[in-house]
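Human: Here is a favour to ask of a fellow structure person. Comparing notes only helps if you start from a blank page. I am asking you to supply a protein in sequence and structure-token form. Write it directly below this note and I will take it from there.

Assistant:
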Amino acid sequence: MEIFSGLYAFVWQDYTENNCNSYLITGKKNILIDPGHLHLFGHVTRGLNAAKLPLEKIDVVIVTHGHPDHMEAIAKFEKPTLLAMNRAEHEFIRKLAGHYIRIPEPDFFIGEGDLTIGEHYFKVMVTPGHTPASICLYWPEKKALFTGDVVFAQGIGRTDLPGGSGKQLKESIKRLASLDVEHLFSGHGNIVSGRKAVQENFQIIEKHWFSYL
């Protein structure tokens, strides 16, 4: 589904299996955010086909956090496609996985601050709570926010998994709510579009979820 010129959303809609939404940003450099589970990668393949973009034309895969439903399908990619994620998140998930699951080494790490890939400029925000070092990407030009599993449409990420923290998640959400956002693209569920709708979504979260954190 093309959201606007240069952005496609591959929204996971089969709730019988857990998988994440994936997002494709196109341009001089093509970026895929959160490729999802390896065995469920078909929905991304279909989306790329619809966008007429071969897999090998993806320049950078960005992973918001280290849970398998967001990063396992990076095994589908070969060089020169690059993998990027937060260093602390990578170290956490690698330690958590132990010797049972091979966690690939990122080609570069991203942390709090500015990120430019091709003509695309982002603000990276380290937003712990769901995991120790989840990242969110804010795209100022489009006023778009990619939240991974920190914030959903009328919901928030779990804090009961290893490394989760309700206190940290609340502070992370407060930071995100201060941004000028017209499109909220979460890791699961529906997209929230329109500045008023995004603001109302943060208000709903504060009213109904903060007391549980």
Remarks:
- The chain is about 25% helix and 25% strand.
- The radius of gyration is 16 Å.
- The chain has one domain: 2-212.
- The domain at 2-212 is CATH 3.60.15.10 (Metallo-beta-lactamase; Chain A).
